[in-house]
Write a structure and sequence with these properties.
With 184 residues, this protein is α+β, with helices and mostly antiparallel strands. The protein has helices spanning 36-42, 59-67, 69-81, 93-116, 123-132, 151-160, 171-183; strands spanning 2-3, 15-19, 30-34, 135-138, 142-145, 169-170. The protein folds into three domains: 1-48, no CATH class; 59-119; 128-182, no CATH class.
């Protein structure tokens, strides 16, 4: 009798492999059996979650910190998937640092937008909208909107106190909008 796999996160740990013959002797034939005792024993811990830490904090602080982990994980997922933070095909340390700084600043900007729009939109909705929120530059005249208004564009306009969707925008006004967004 042998265990298939002792990895604590693998379901295979509940399977036992038996080798036997028609006479009950150890042989080449094999059978896989569920270890009901092990399943029953582990079921005592269902719906329990344990955290081991070296932090010298009180229990409520540790629980609070642990609950915030999902935000860190979501941030890494966004950086990886939306901002292409990985893999990095750069060799120069300065360029690698610049790449990750750009990704970090993009994530920070996204979080500010999410907060200023009261968390009404997902990261994906905000990024999709930003990627399609184009304006045409008309030489020596200004800018003209090249996107369709949506609830997301309206929320961004309201949150950052600018409008680029309803009228022609002079170059001077566009500079003012960009300057004000930087201050927000």
């Amino acid at each position: 009798m042998s265990r298939i796999n002792e990895n604590q996160s693998s379901l295979k740990r509940f399977i036992t492999e038996l080798s036997f013959s028609a006479n009950g002797e150890v042989a080449e034939k094999k059978a896989l059996l569920l270890d009901a005792d092990k399943i029953s024993n582990e079921s005592r811990f269902d719906e329990l979650y344990a955290v081991c830490t070296t932090l010298d904090k009180n229990i409520s602080d540790i629980i609070h910190i642990n609950k915030m982990r999902w935000q860190v994980e979501a941030a890494f997922r966004t950086m990886k998937n939306e901002f292409k933070a990985r893999p990095v095909y750069l060799r120069n340390d300065d360029r690698i640092t610049a790449h990750f700084l750009t990704c970090f600043l993009s994530l920070l900007t996204l979080r500010i937008m999410a907060k200023k729009t009261d968390g009404k939109f997902t990261d994906e909705e905000l990024l999709k909208t930003l990627r399609t929120m184009n304006v045409y530059h008309l030489r020596n005249l200004g800018y003209l909107s090249a996107y369709t208004r949506t609830p997301v564009t309206d929320a961004l306009h309201e949150a950052f106190d600018f409008r680029t969707d309803m009228e022609f925008i002079s170059s001077k006004t566009m500079k003012k909008i960009l300057s004000n967004i930087g201050k927000a």
